[in-house]
Amino acid sequence: MMPTWEENKPATLAMIALSVFGVLFLSAKAELASREARQVGRPVPMEHTITIDGTGKALGKPDVAAVSFGVDTRGAEVASTQQKNTDAMNALLEKVKALGVSEDDIQTSNYSVYQDFRYDPNSGASIPTGWIVSQQVTIKMRDTAKISSVLQTVGQNGATNISGPNFTIDDPSSLLDEARADALEDANRKAMQLAQTLGLRIERIVGYSEYAPGGGPIPYYERAVGMGGGGAPSIAPGQNEVDLNVSITYKLVD
């Protein structure tokens, strides 16, 4: 038989007190967990932040140049025209390699075979006149002092089209670092001025992003003289500009 109230009053009071304490403890714990959940991932209030954009740039002399050239060959039959085109291009590439261009820096960028037609104004018909085989090659030159010699050589040895040079910087990471430092300085200066105008101060940075406009270096040429009369052209690489934009969000306090 269970003891009555009169028989075990102290034990009963203890059980009641323990139950009440347990209920209060669980309620307090649940409230704390709820508050923590509401705080997790809670953004800094917009009215306490400003976002400032900064721009930076760095100039560097390009150390790589790309030149493209091609050979177009006409013939009555596809197979024989292809062979003539291959022979002409291979002979041309041997001349280019002799100037110090590495095999690893030579890439076929296009190869096409198509039938050629002549329009007959009397009948209004297109009359086939044979086949054209076209092969395009792009070379990367790591010694930019030899660009003039390469352009002259390909022009004198069978190239039917030439384009370039396109100047780039092989490893622009140091220029990006320089441009980033310039952009950060620009953004911080603007943020300090604005915070001072608002009568506030910057506590810390709460957001950062960056991007390079245009996706690559911008060339600035001093001069570039085109080919003429089969002679070696005068080529000036000038400088490449690396641009970087940053966007920084600052937390402000009184």
TrEMBL record:
GO biological process: one example: DNA damage response
InterPro entries: 26kDa_periplasmic_antigen (IPR052022), SIMPL/DUF541 (IPR007497)
Domain of life: Bacteria
Gene3D superfamilies xrefs: Protein of unknown function (DUF541), domain 1, Protein of unknown function (DUF541), domain 2
Protein name (database record): SIMPL domain-containing protein
Organism encoding this protein: Candidatus Uhrbacteria bacterium RIFCSPHIGHO2_01_FULL_63_20
